[in-house]
Structure formats: structure tokens, C-alpha cells
Amino acid sequence: MRCRHFGTCGGCSAQDRAYELQLQAKQSEFESLLGPLDVQPVAIAASTDQWYYRNKIELSFGAIVNSPQDQRSPALGFKQKGKWWKVFDLEECLIFDPGLGPVVRAVRQWVERENLAIYDNRRHQGFLRYLVMRKSTGGGLMVTIVTTSSGSLPKESFEAIFDHPRAALMWGIQDSSGDTAMTQRFEILRGEPFLYENLLGRRFRCGANSFFQTNPRAFELLLEDLAGQASAVIEPSASGPKPSILDLYCGVGAIGITLSERLGVPVLGIESSASSIEDAVFNAEKRGSFPASINLKGFSAGESPLNPVVERGPASTRGEPSGLVLGSGGKGDSPALNPSINFMLAKAEDVAGDLLSKPEYRDGLVILDPPRSGLHPKVLENLEKSPPKNLFYVCCNPKLALQTEFPRLCQIYKIVRAKAFDFFPQTPHYEALFVLRRRDSRPGSG
Fold first, then answer.
1. pLDDT digits over 4-38, tens only?
2. For the domain bounded by 56-191, which CATH number is listed?
3. CB neighbours of 25 closer than 8 A, spacing ≥ 6?
4. DSSP 3-state assignment of 12?
5. pTM for the whole thing?
6. What's the topology of domain 202-305+316-438?
7. What are phi and psi of 132, to 5 degrees?
8. What's the first-to-final CA gap in the chain, in angstroms?
């Protein structure tokens, strides 16, 4: 084992195995899960990097009891394995960044000097909750300290910890009792609340509250594979609407934008996170490839789709936010292919029924990339009622999906290809890409 926290931290429970054995174990599990469906997967794709591959880490603040008199010192790290309430002091994380240890120690010392109250997850009291760090392969760094609204952050001394020339610093507020680092509002202390990541030679923006795949180099392998599979199923239409791509759970638009440019077909991306949708529109526009537009749908009057609230401190270098732009035009040179790409801020379960009934998606391609909890029941129901000809499922929890969703999906669709991608070396987890085709469809059929 390379990590000194192995056994205490449950995050990298497979690191006591050689990487080749980890891949064999994941492939074997994947084959076993697909066996009841009579599907043989292709070989698993290994991660480009086995160590220091993650671009994001969420650390929790805690307290360590040092004496029978209940004297406590601040802790900053991960939750102990099997103890959600107890944080251990992190000294290193070999899947994030080799420079993490000194930063964590400096933040702990800062907490002690400033005598800041640690949030108690059981009593739901206190101030400091999380430290979230994100990095890009290009050298960018974004740090968000998450607290409750019950205290005041010593901003100047916090900023002094980070002398990274490209470090963006945020102060996020989270008052809910849930154990989540997603902020309800945040103040920008320094820099911009974004990072930029390159995927297959393209630059994508990701905001502080937006989801982005945590292993970008492994995601490139899946994205390249998915694009190749999509080019084989998107067929020109002799009559009627041009086949289009419906990208449910589109995030910051990486899959949809890549496919739209490569295949020259219209794409509609659906996402419930306003932060991700803003990034998706930016990504489509700033690449100068095609016009992008955005619609708002699926939110009741009592909900605010534009959360979180962003406040800018005096150290912010950004201008005023432009907000969400309807029907914004592309910038830059036009490429040889100029398809349209649109995004809808909506919950997939609220719009899937209407969209799946449209012929351009029914005869085109639907992409699913849901969170780890899987498809919403209404989305699954609509995929049964109005099945598209082609369905690609990007799955971060293959075991759950194959045991609960695919027994229903496979009544209507045939899995024509399944491949695992090792997004998470040193852990038992992996991503998977499933290529499904409606059972009454054949290549060239309508």
C-alpha cells in the first residue's frame, strides 16, 4: 500500500492490489452482472493515470479529542471508514494531488489560530463544514470553504494560505442539515468561480457548483468511444425531420457539444442544474462552433432555478454576471458543419415524455448520463412508452442499473455493446457505456 491512510479511509480500498488485478476484478464483476442478460462486454478500458487522477476533493472539518478533559483540536480530512460522524486528519491523498498535504496542514493551523467553531454533524451546530478543492490539468485551482451562516469568515487570513497564482477562492454557505458540500450561495474572494478543462483538444468551462467527470483523461477515452459508436447509428433521413440527439442529464455539455460538432446533427441538452446549463451555453458559444440557446422549463414558481446566489467580494476580478441568455448567438469563425445546439434548464423527468415522442429523437439518438442514484422512475417509464431507436447509457453505477433498470429496458431494447471504463483506479468502482437499440429496429430502418 502506498497511502498511509489505507484502512482508516475507505476511499481507496483496492490499492492493496496490483492495477492489473484491479482491472481483472472489475471486468469479472461486469461480466457477471451482464450474464443474466446474455451479453458479453468488450474489454475494460484502463485509466490513463492510476494515481493523482482526480480533479476534485471534498474534505470535512471535524474535531479530535486529545484528553480526558475533552480538549479538542481541529481536524480536516475524510470521514473514517464506517463512521460518518468522525473525521481523521488527512496527510496525503494519492489520487488527488501530491501537494495536498501541506495545504491541509496550513488550513488546520489557520482554524486553530482563528479559533473557529467546527460544525457538528450530529447536533447540527457550528460554523466550518467543508473544504472543496478542484484542479484542472492545465494548472488551475479552485478552493471553496463551506460554512454555515452562523459566523464570519476571516477572509484575509484565509486568502493568505493560498499563494497559488491561479487559485480562485470562494466562501460558500450551506445551512441544510444534510451532509452535502453543495453551496446555497457563495461569495467570490479571489479570481473566477470557474475552471477550464481540455477534453479531446476542446476547452470546457466548469463552475463551482457544476458537475464534471472527476477523471478527465479517462473520460476522454469514453467520449471518443461514444462518438465513434454514435457515428455508426446516426443515419440521414430521406424524408421527415433530421435525426437529432437528445442529451438527458447533459451537465456542462461535453458529450452533446462534441457529438454535434463531429456528426453535424442538432442536439438538445437537458439539465436541472442552472450552474451546469450556464456553463454548457458558454462552452457552446465560446468554442465558436454554433449558435446556442437556452430555455427554462420544469420548475415551479416556488423554486429558483438560478441558485446558488453569487455575491462578489471586493477582491473579485470578474465583471457583473450576465445571467442566462435566451437565443444567444455563437461567436468566432463558423466551422464547416454548423448544427444547432440548444439547452433546456429542466428536470429530465418533467420533459422526457414530450421530447421522446418527437420523431427527430425517436429516430435519432438519446443519451442518458444520470447521477449515481440512477434514472428517475418517470424517465424509465417514458423510455418504455416512447422508445427511441438508439439509446446510449453512460452509467456511473453499473451494478444498480443492471440489477434494477436493465431488466425492464431489455424488454424493449437490445444491448448491442457494453464496455467498462476505469474512471476510479484504486477503488472497486468503474464507469460503463451501454449501446442499446430498440428491438424492432434494424440498421437502415425507420
1. 999 999 899 999 999 999 999 999 999 999 999 99
2. 2.40.50.1070
3. 14, 17, 428
4. coil
5. 0.87
6. Rossmann fold (3.40.50)
7. -110, 125
8. 54
